[in-house]
Amino acid sequence: MFGQVLYDVEVDVPAGDAWELYGTLQLAKVVQEGLSPMVEKVELVEGDGGVGTVLELTVAPPPGAQGPMIYKEKFTKIDNEKRIKETEVVEGGLLDFGFTLYRICFEVVEKDKDSCAIKLKIEYDVKEEAASSASMITSKPLEGIASVTTSYLLKMKNANAN
Hints:
This is Bet v I/Major latex protein domain-containing protein. Keywords: Alkaloid metabolism. The protein is an alpha+beta fold. The protein contains 3 helices and 7 strands; from the N terminus they run E-H-H-E-E-E-E-E-E-H. A 7-stranded antiparallel β-sheet has the order 1-7-6-5-4-3-2. Helix 2 crosses helix 3.
């Protein structure tokens, strides 16, 4: 069973500035700091921030789970020209609940020279026998990421203006 969840936010910063965050490892640091204690830990396992980079995340358990959830995600696509980044869970996490795919996609779209839209998407696929696990997928992680990164980007913009 395939599904997706979308969340978009507009930010009053240039698309290039937003991509400097979303297209790099800095995103993990900002998310960890901004979403603590929900995101307990983010560790670089391998890579330099390019395609193939693997992070290990420790997050608060989803509804119905016991204890923190630990999983690895891999950067599977980074397109600096189109400003698109995709990560997929490759070990643990929701894969342990019958998911065969859990992908987060980030896209930064220029609106004008001083603003952009950040499009966030979760794509997932779950085995038919575990279809009830699909209820674990909500827009909350996307909303949290968007809130934290928007605040960070606006803070950086204001700091650079002074």
